[in-house]
């Protein structure tokens, strides 16, 4: 097994005394996250859990669009709906796909398989190792 650490991407999250509102920066892009009012936040951005689902959903939609375009199938729109649950101590993400276009049942079955091959789905499905430490100054 190769133990070479390959950087895939990076992001930074910063919060201040405004409680839970957090500015997330990745490349040239910025996203605001926050907690709902019921959790003590001000609901000024999507929650971290919603951001996780958004990452999975967008990756799934992009992966499906790449495959559909390569196959030249007539699909105008791809919808990826997701819900996050806690069941008996496990985390469960339910994903529902919907396609606006002309697809056979066989093509739809294939697209379900392709959805499970998106990079974020693979990342969330495997063992993730966290290395948390202090930033070197």
Could you provide a short overview of the structure?
The protein has 137 residues and is α+β, with helices and mostly antiparallel strands.
Q: How would you describe what is shown here?
A:
With 137 residues, the chain is of the alpha+beta class. The chain folds into two domains: 1-46; 47-129, 2-Layer Sandwich (GMP Synthetase, Chain A, domain 3). The protein has helices spanning 48-71, 105-115, 119-125, and strands at residues 12-15, 22-26, 29-33, 75-87, 90-101. The strands form two sheets. The protein has a three-stranded antiparallel β-sheet with strand order 1-2-3, with no helix packed on it. The chain has a two-stranded antiparallel sheet with strand order 4-5. It is globular. 8% of the residues are buried.
State the CATH superfamily name of the largest domain: K homology (KH) domain
Element pattern in H and E: EEEHEEHH
Task: State the major sheet.
Answer: 3 strands, antiparallel
Task: Count the E strands.
Answer: 5
Describe this protein with a few key phrases.
137 residues; three-stranded antiparallel sheet; single chain; alpha+beta; GMP Synthetase, Chain A, domain 3; 28% strand; 2 domains; 3 helices
């Amino acid at each position: 097994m190769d133990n070479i650490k390959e950087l895939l991407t990076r992001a930074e999250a910063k919060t201040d005394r405004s409680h839970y509102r957090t500015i997330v920066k990745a490349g040239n892009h910025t996203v605001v996250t926050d907690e709902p009012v019921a959790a003590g936040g001000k609901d000024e951005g999507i929650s971290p859990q919603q951001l996780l689902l958004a990452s999975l959903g967008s990756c799934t939609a992009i992966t499906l669009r790449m495959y559909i375009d390569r196959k030249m199938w007539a699909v105008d729109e791809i919808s990826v709906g997701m819900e996050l649950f806690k069941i008996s101590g496990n985390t469960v993400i339910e994903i529902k796909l919907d396609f606006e276009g002309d697809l056979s049942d066989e093509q739809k079955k294939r697209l379900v398989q392709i959805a499970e091959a998106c990079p974020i789905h693979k990342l969330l499905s495997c063992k993730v190792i966290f290395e948390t430490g202090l930033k070197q100054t």
